[in-house]
Amino acid sequence: MKRKSFAPVTSQQVAQLAGVSQSAVSRTFTPGASISPATREKVMQAARELGYRPNALARSLNTARSRIIGVVISWFDNHFYPQVLEVLAQQLDALNYHLLLFVENRDGTVDKIFDQIMQYRVDGIVLASVSLSDALSQECQAAGIPVVLFNRAADDALTSSVNTDNCAAARQIAEFLLAGGHQRFAYVAGLPDSSVNQLRQQGFSETLAARGLTLQVVQGNYDREQTLQAARSLFNRATPPDAVFAATDHMALMVMDVARYEFGLAIPEQLSVVGYDDVGPAGWPSYALTSASQPVQAMVDATVALLMKQIDSGTLAPEQIQIPATLVVRHSARRPRVGVVESDGYSWFRPEDVK
Amino acid sequence: MKRKSFAPVTSQQVAQLAGVSQSAVSRTFTPGASISPATREKVMQAARELGYRPNALARSLNTARSRIIGVVISWFDNHFYPQVLEVLAQQLDALNYHLLLFVENRDGTVDKIFDQIMQYRVDGIVLASVSLSDALSQECQAAGIPVVLFNRAADDALTSSVNTDNCAAARQIAEFLLAGGHQRFAYVAGLPDSSVNQLRQQGFSETLAARGLTLQVVQGNYDREQTLQAARSLFNRATPPDAVFAATDHMALMVMDVARYEFGLAIPEQLSVVGYDDVGPAGWPSYALTSASQPVQAMVDATVALLMKQIDSGTLAPEQIQIPATLVVRHSARRPRVGVVESDGYSWFRPEDVK
Predict the structure, then answer these.
(1) Cβ of A86 and B79 within 8 Å?
(2) Cα–Cα distance between B109 and B76 in angstroms, integer?
(3) Which residue of chain A is at minimal alpha-carbon distance from B89?
(4) Pairing state of beta strands B272-277 and B290-293?
(5) Count of domains in chain A?
(6) What tens digit of pLDDT does each residue of A243-271 get?
(7) What is the rounded distance in angstroms from the CA atom of residue A158 to the CA atom of residue B342?
(8) ipTM exceeding the 0.85 mark
(9) CA distance A81 to B111
(10) Domain range for A313
């Protein structure tokens, strides 16, 4: 079958068949435009009959709105990001926006694919798991395009971002492990230049340092192979840790596998492991990982609300939004005698009960 | 900061600064167009200086090509689909196509979001994990838009599709479990109307039936809660199975967790479990799941090649592509004494050695 060229039904034809003005057809297919139910029904019937579909691309040139949000994301093997993407796509869809997906290589900056995103005249950009250079951040500002960093923050205050309170949650994890009587602490770090890694490490190490305790740090860099190697190097030491905090669940699960299946360590009797994200597999009974929960729905809600506010108002006042993360207590780490509370079928850590 | 209206730099301005024709600017930014390196460099320098970016949306109206591929996908908690999406986005990006993402609800048909996809004048559509009604399939044909079903097939021969040979792989799984001396077989089914579920069940049950063996079937429907319930119902029976094949790894992992942590069954001593997909967690040592491997890279390669052939040729000759799936043998199922071969650091099942 020969591919037809684009000679679709026009809005004039629909208007003629429906016996209405062309403007009525246009308003029928413009989200939020005023149109009487009776006229709308006439238009819809004619449109169905003729197989008419409004051309979103042409409309975007007229309205200067593409209704496309560019989303850059990577690390699909970390279950957190697919979950974010699913919720984000559903929420944008509900607002009649659509999601143009860009998968970044893992060097963590987005600059080289930025030209492509801009070509599509996107109405907004979400950068999840990647960072934006200062130069590009300024270019977006100049072009009037809202950008929200998701699970990443910029050094400057010019770029909007949505994160959990990484530093506070990491302090809570340190308190939890201290209350559980652990003595030798290790941190499996993500990429050094990722803001969430920096803040998680900072909160954890500062809390330990305040008690005069040191921290062994190894680099997992969010990568499977590097994390496996990092875990092996930890457990091969003369004084291996009895408590490990990994910057993401994705890495924490690998640390547990190395500890159990390569070093024969019993979890949590000989080793406690805590992660960050509370991804699906953290709840699987094979792992039962204690983890700082990032509330994906609330984080995506905040991201979409911030984008829409900037798009609708035409102003780019940047906001840095922080959402609390709660430590979900399962069985991968020894529990302190006090401070763990039960609600909604989950166990949580409430450090105020410890002090 | 006030949002600017779209008054971007024009190609005329770039041509003027570069001292070249407007057509030279256009050719510089058209993938595959002929342009001398010297002219190209002049244009790029002027474009950089002025902050010019070609408008992909406007270009799509001129060329009748949006360079957008609509992708509909669901089941993000099944690791197979995020992996597919990542590879698909990277491959399309390499060809200078972009991916407009639609996340379908889990009813399995895509009809209601189809109008939205069509509004963007996509050059092609990939439907992963969802099916297309016959009516819509015909509408795509009429509009000349290539559609490829990924990991799904249509009843008719009008729609292109890319799958592994589900029936053959399921027969191989039955042979493997028979060779391992199992006697009581169960199948944890996916959604009844999904083609891959039908074919996997068919291959498995027919092979058993040929030996005079019956099959217990329970419905997991690709859903976590339903799969947990289905597994419980199996292991609560008076004669529980000693071999379970789940239609996807995602469900097989849950079956293993229920067997071990709720029923205290030793795997593979008391129960063998086999899955389909070979997702990342299947290789994690906590599961070491024996699974029919779906080669994501090869499947996406075939999908993109098929789309590009149809887009470039302007013909929609449908093709149903089948790629072999190989049974990767790990430790979740009792191994037969013969038929398992080692290569590339993996163990595979070669049923021809059994017969």
Answers:
(1) no
(2) 16
(3) A103
(4) parallel
(5) 3
(6) 999 999 999 999 999 999 999 999 999 99
(7) 55
(8) no
(9) 27
(10) 68-164+296-323
